[in-house]
Amino acid sequence: MTQDSSRRGRKPRVSDEDILAVFSDAETPFLTTAEVAEELPIKRRATYNRLSALADADVLRKKNVGGRNSVWWLTSDEVTE
Known about the structure:
Layout: H1 16-25, E1 31-32, H2 33-38, H3 44-56, E2 60-64, E3 70-74, H4 76-80
């Protein structure tokens, strides 16, 4: 995702780069939505929506790990950049 976007046309408080930095700074190669949300000044639902948009743009990958739980990780292209 090259440009940050919002459904209502407002500039988001958290950039895509802010979200990706959470992954780069993490001790593990994957994170849950809750773990990402803890590091950002936005609510969990907004974090999930942003992570989903990054996955749709092939910046992140997602795996459901039971119930409503998911883990996210950077694509190999993002890891090497």
